[in-house]
Amino acid sequence: MKSSQPHSHQTAYISVEDACLIVQRLGLAHCLAGMTRALEEDFKRWPEFDKTARVASHSARGVIELMPIADSHHYSFKYVNGHPGNTQAGLPTVMALGLLADVDTGLPVLLSELTLCTALRTAATSALAAQALARPDSQVMALIGNGSQAEFQALAFHHLLGIQEVRLFDVDPDARAKVMRNLADSGLHTVDCSSTAQAVQGADIVTTLTADKARAIILDTDLVQPGMHINAVGGDCPGKTELSKGVMQRASVFVEFEAQTRIEGELQQMPADFPVTELWHVLTAQAPGRTHRDQITVFDSVGFALEDFSALRFMRDCAQRLGLNRTLSLIPELNDPKDLFSLIRTHEEALSAT
Ligand SMILES: NC(=O)c1ccc[n+]([C@@H]2O[C@H](COP(=O)([O-])OP(=O)(O)OC[C@H]3O[C@@H](n4cnc5c(N)ncnc54)[C@H](O)[C@@H]3O)[C@@H](O)[C@H]2O)c1
Question: Ligand 1 — pocket residues by CB below 6 A?
C-alpha cells in the first residue's frame, strides 16, 4: 500500500481508519446531511441507473449479498453480510466493503470500507424517507433494537428531522445502556424503556432495527397510532420481518426498489398485488407522500445498491477534500497493455537481483 497521489492505474482506498477520520474531521451531522443530499440527488435520477435486485447467498446462520448498480459513468457494488448471531462471536451482524469503477474502462477507482458507511447511509436513507413521509412536527422517535445501527439512526433523525426524544428498547439491556451512553452528549433526550409497548407510547416515528433471522412481530397493530411513521429497517431478507400483516394493511407503504422489497422486505408477507410506492416517485413529485395527518406511513427499508453508490461517491469526495490520498495497487501497470507476461518477468528479474 502506498500513500501518494493516486496514479491513473491506482485504486483509491478508504480504510476503516480513514472513514473514521472523515467523520471526525467533518462531523457526524455534516456527514449525515451530505450523505442525504447525495442520496436525494441519485434517487431523483432513478431512471438513469441500471438496477438489479441484490444477489443473496443464504445459509443457516445468515446471508452474504452482492449489490451492484451502474449509471453511464460509474459502476459500484457492495459486499455485505447479515449474521444476527455474529455478536456472540465478537463480530458485527453487518460487515461490508464496496467498490466504485469507471464504466468506460472498467478500472476500479475506489475500494472502501462500508461497515461504518452502511450505518451512515442507512440512517441517511431513513431520514430522507421520513422527511417526505413523517408528520413535519414529529418530535419523538421510538428505537426498537439498539445495536450497531441505532445511534446513527437516532442522530440522523435528530439533526435532519428535529427529533428531540428517543425512546429505547432492546431485549438486551446492555445494548440499551450502550446507546444511552453514546447519546449522552448528543442533545437528544433518551428514555430507557422496558418493552416495545412502553417505547412506542407517544412516539411520532417508530424505527425497528432488530436482528433476528425470523418472521418476528416487533410491532403489531395495537401499538400503532394514527399519524405514525414507521421506519422498518431490520426486516431485510427472506424469512426476516418485523411488522405484522395488520400493520402493513393499515398503512401506506413506501419502498426503495419494489422488485427487491417484494422478496426481502415486510412486503414478502403480503399478496403480490399489495400496493406500494417507490420512494423516488415521491422525491420527484410523481406520487404523493403523506397526504393527511392521521395517515400511517411505513418505509419498508431493505437497503438498495443505489444507496451504496451514493455513499461511495460521497466518501470519495470527502477523502479528496481532506487530502486522504491512500491508494492500492490492484491493477497492473504495463508498458505494453498486451504484454501481461512481462509483469512476472520483471518481478522475477527484481527477485533474482535481490
Ligand atoms: N435496511 C437496511 O438498509 C439495513 C441496513 C443495515 C442493517 N439492516 C438490518 O438492521 C438490523 C439491525 O442491524 P445492526 O447492525 O444494528 O444489528 P445488531 O445485531 O448490532 O443489533 C440488533 C439488536 O436487535 C436486538 N433485538 C433482537 N430481537 C429483538 C426484539 N425482539 N426486540 C428488541 N430488540 C431485539 C438485539 O438484542 C440487538 O441489540 C439487522 O437486521 C440488519 O440486517 C438493515
Answer: 82, 84, 87, 93-94, 118, 122, 144-149, 169-172, 175, 209-212, 216, 218, 233-234, 236, 301-303
Which of 311, 306, 308, 283 lies closest to 133, judged by CA? 283
Instruction: Give residue 72 CA to ligand 1 midpoint distance, Å.
Output: 34
Catalytic residue selected from 18, 204, 236, 308: 236
> What are the φ/ψ torsions at residue 297 (nearest 5 degrees)?
-115, 140
Tell me, rounded to whole angstroms, the distance of Cα 159 from its chain centroid. 17
CA distances from 209 to 107, 119, 195 (A): 36, 11, 14
Tens-digit pLDDT string for the chain (354 aa):
444 444 478 999 999 999 999 999 999 999 999 999 999 999 999 999 999 999 999 999 999 999 999 999 999 999 999 999 999 999 999 999 999 999 999 999 999 999 999 999 999 999 999 999 999 999 999 999 999 999 999 999 999 999 999 999 999 999 999 999 999 999 999 999 999 999 999 999 999 999 988 899 999 999 999 999 999 999 999 999 999 999 999 999 999 999 999 999 999 999 999 999 999 999 999 999 999 999 999 999 999 999 999 999 999 999 999 999 999 999 999 999 999 999 998 777 777 877
The residue whose CA is least distant from atom 28 of ligand 1 is 210
Name which of 45, 2, 254, 303 is nearest 134 in CA terms: 254
- DSSP, collapsed to helix, strand or coil, labels residue 253 as strand
Grid coordinates representing 236? 431485510
74, 99, 181, 267, 303 from 232: Cα distances, Å: 30, 27, 24, 11, 11
236 is catalytic: yes
Determine whether 110 is exposed, middle or buried from the number of CB atoms within 10 Å of its CB (0-12, 13-18, 19+): buried
Write down the pTM of the prediction: 0.96
CA of 210 to the centre of ligand 1 (A): 3
- Report the Cα–Cα distance between both ends of the chain, in Å, rounded: 21
| Atom nearest to 82 CA in ligand 1 | 43
Q: Which atom of ligand 1 is nearest to the CA of 240?
A: 41
